Amino acid sequence: MINILDKKFVPLISREVIENRIAAIASEITNDYEGRCPLFIVVLNGAFLFASELVKRIPLSCEITFIKLASYSKTQSTGSVREIIGLNDDISGREIIIIEDIVDTGLTMAQLIRQINDHAPASVAIASLLHKPEALQTPIYIRYTGFNIENKFVVGYGLDYDGIGRNLDAIYVLA
Ligand SMILES: O=P(O)(O)OC[C@H]1O[C@H](OP(=O)(O)OP(=O)(O)O)[C@H](O)[C@@H]1O
Ligand SMILES: Nc1nc2[nH]cnc2c(=O)[nH]1
Fold first, then answer.
1. Where are the domains of the chain?
2. Residue partners of 48: CB distance under 8 A and separation at least 6
3. pTM exceeding the 0.90 threshold for the entire prediction
4. Which position among 32, 101, 104, 160 bears the catalytic label?
5. pLDDT tens digit string along 96-114?
6. CA of 61 to the centre of ligand 2 (A)
7. How far from 94 is each of 37, 38, 49, CA to CA, in Å?
8. Smallest-distance ligand from the CA of 113
9. In 3D, which of 144, 168, 129 has the Cα closest to residue 11?
């Protein structure tokens, strides 16, 4: 059990299990994109750790860029997605792979996909470390999923509770 601010969390997914799964996703992406040069779009803040562990295992020629979106306040979705840092890259004709830490309600991803599709990419795929299928409010197809989890608030491996806990090397769930 760990304490973060006023809440208690218990272990859900260990570092070893996470890293083995990331290695498997990296192999899949490497096979699927052989001979192509994908552009990874990393959704900050939460996806920074997943992204760094993933891309270092993908020996393809590729580019990596960042966008910063926010929709969560403490343990709840606010229902609206704010863009804090936008996309400056030319994505038309590119093979896009979005790297996300979690797809929960799906509102963040739905907005980002709409925004990307407005710029005529060649293809768009999503890689998300976590997914809460029961929480989804809009259909989202996730090509590469790390783990499907229950609809409970989680922290660690990039994910925070009120700004704290992103540096934990495993995933914890609210007790
Ligand atoms: O599917 P949704 O319900 O839209 O939730 C998913 C989003 O929530 C988290 O971001 P958050 O707003 O917490 O910002 P952060 O990544 O900076 O922590 C996460 O990184 C996703 O981007
Ligand atoms: N930290 C954290 N951020 C989220 N964003 C969407 N769902 C979650 C969650 O369960 N935990």
1. 16-151
2. 42, 158, 166
3. yes
4. 104
5. 999 999 999 999 999 999 9
6. 31
7. 8, 7, 24
8. 1
9. 168
Does 104 participate in catalysis according to the annotation?
A: yes
pLDDT digits (tens, 9 = 90+) for 19-62: 999 999 999 999 999 999 999 999 999 999 999 999 999 999 99
Nearest atom in ligand 2 to the alpha carbon of residue 165 is 1
**If you measure from the C-alpha of residue 96 to the centroid of ligand 2, how many angstroms do you get, rounded to a whole number?**
24
Beta-carbon contacts of residue 158 (< 8 Å; ≥ 6 apart): 45, 46, 47, 48, 49, 50, 101, 129, 166
HSE-CB of 125 using CA atoms within 13 angstroms = 14
| Tokens at 91, concatenated | 């994505």
Separation of 92 CA from ligand 2 center, angstroms?
A: 30
pLDDT at residue 79 greater than cutoff 90: no
pLDDT at 2 over 80: yes
* CATH architecture of the region 16-151: 3-Layer(aba) Sandwich (3.40)
